[in-house]
TrEMBL record:
The gene is Nudt16l1. It is found in: Nucleus. The keyword Thylakoid does not apply. Pfam families: Nudt16-like. This is TIRR protein. One of its GO terms (cellular component) is nucleus. Gene3D superfamilies: Nucleoside Triphosphate Pyrophosphohydrolase. GO terms for molecular function: snoRNA binding. Keywords: Nucleus, RNA-binding. Transmembrane segments: none annotated. InterPro entries: NUDIX_hydrolase-like_dom_sf, NudT16.
Amino acid sequence: MQMRFDGLLGFPGGFVDRRYWSLEDGLNRVLGLGLGCVRLTEADYLCSHLTEGPHRVVAHFYARQLTLEELHTIEISAVHSRDHGMEVMGMVRVPLYTQKDRMGGLPNFLANSFVGTAKFQLLFALKILNMVPEEKLAEAVAATQRPKKVAIDQAGGAA
């Protein structure tokens, strides 16, 4: 994922003008600007989501398995992209584990702010691609929905 200029987490991508490109051509053009070495095809398509509101956007989600070498290449090329430091602050790896405290790792990551449908897309991909066991994924989501414990000194000072 990427940390965006506005502090929200999202996936690489951008707007595609359907009059000129197929979805994959447009996406590969945008990814070429930011990541350089990844080419997605129709076979990499996972799902689409409609964002309601004044600016309706259809977010098409693609996923592709990479080797560790390909991932390293992408991370290096991302730092040298023209958008780095302006639109994109950096790449972020999603932790696919939960620590013994049941908050560290994926639950803490899911507590971040995500742009548009990015959080839903992430959870969908983790489930459909079997990257995290379904029960662990449900636990991570539930952990982010529990109220956080108030620090003892804050509770004592509030009295």
